[in-house]
Amino acid sequence: MHIPVIYPTMNTAFSSLYCTKSRFASVATVRGTRRLAPRLRSSPSPLRSPLLARHISTKSTEGIARDRSNNGTRVKYVLFLSTAATLSWFLYAQQQGAVRLDSDKKYSTHPDPLAPKNGIQDAQKKTPKSLDDLDLPIEKAILTTAPNVPPPITRDYPVLLDVDLTTVSKLEQLTNQYKYEKWTFNNSVPGPFIRARVGDVLNLRITNHDESGMPHNIDCHAFVGPGGGSALTTVNEGETKTARFKLPNPGLYIYHCAVGPVGVHIANGMYGLLYVQPEQDLPAVDKEYYVMQSEFYHEPPEADDDGQMSSTVEFSWPHALREAADVVVFNGSEAALTEKPLKASLDDTVRIFFGNGGPNFTSSFHVIGTCFSKVYRDSDVLSPPAQCVQTVSVPAGGSTIVDMKMVVPGTYTIVDHAIFRLEKGAKGFLNVSGEPRPSLYYSAQPPQPCEGCKLHP
């Protein structure tokens, strides 16, 4: 930090004052000596020659002339000191309260917090308007169900973005063997993909249609404020609430229900992704997909009235506390990305917006048979992306964005490379169509996947 250059000017003034005082002292000493000298001498004797008397008289005249000259010099020095002091004080008053940083920006400060402003005005501070009193265009958000992603936003201005979320529970297939009652946003697990632009104000309306009577809300990692918006959006059965949130930070953010116990609501499927585009969005790609990983914890099935084991399982609190997941899946079920795989063509660039709903595990996200040409780690869309990355670590409640260039046709398997989770359902496929590329991938023998292999269909 550089303080304004005031002190050298003042030092110059004080140095001048010191030197001037020294000169005055010397002049005064000489003058005093010369004044005393005639008094100490005896009166000229009439016996002394006229020449000597004339010589003394001449010296006295010269002394008077010097005194007059010294008086003029004193006036000049006084004028000089007054001017220097006035100039120094003027510079000090002008620069008072300004601190200059290395970036050459000025920031207002004050040497004494109790000192009066003395008419000095700080930079005018604009009082922000309430989000309830905005003059912005209104736009309805395009919401999509995984694995689909809304189209990129092309506008270059902020809007009031309407987003409607509804909470409802539904019995749905979880694995090939079991059904499970999921708690959902907009009837899907994960919840809908929301696409916004930095600077937008999200106008969120949340309605609770959960017939169990369970309250729900939204905690979004993109919302700046206590609880991520949860306290403003808690709704009981049959209730609707509206709240507005400014989106100042670009990136890909998790949203989830945060009604206690929070882990239960997340474990039952209440999570999704909100992408806040930067002013200059990421480079365009051929395909964009939405994939979320999560775990489910359930009790063993119970016997039905006919003695057969039930095909429906229920949430297990003990399993969740032990972090002993029974199921680990992409997009809410074991079959989500196997029965309906992602698709691309040869030479396509594929982008996956990947989130980890948790509630407990960190994902080692990996696509077998390719590497990520670009990785926006932790969904940092402002820094340069990492390149040629094989596996990305994504914590619970975190996200990432990966790009892949598909240069060889075939089926690519999406996994969590904590590989035993494959046996719990963490598997998906990306099918790439096109002509073979023997210049990159070749053998004289035909491919022969191993029997019962879950990685190579």
UniProtKB/TrEMBL annotation:
Species for this entry: Aspergillus pseudonomiae
Name under which the protein is recorded: Copper-containing nitrite reductase
Named cofactor requirement(s): Cu(+); Cu(2+)
Binding positions for Cu cation per the UniProt entry: 216, 221, 256-257, 265, 270, 417
GO-annotated molecular function: copper ion binding; nitrite reductase (NO-forming) activity
Family statement drawn from the similarity comment of this UniProt entry: Belongs to the multicopper oxidase family.
The keyword Repeat is annotated on this UniProt entry: yes
Top class in the EC scheme: oxidoreductase
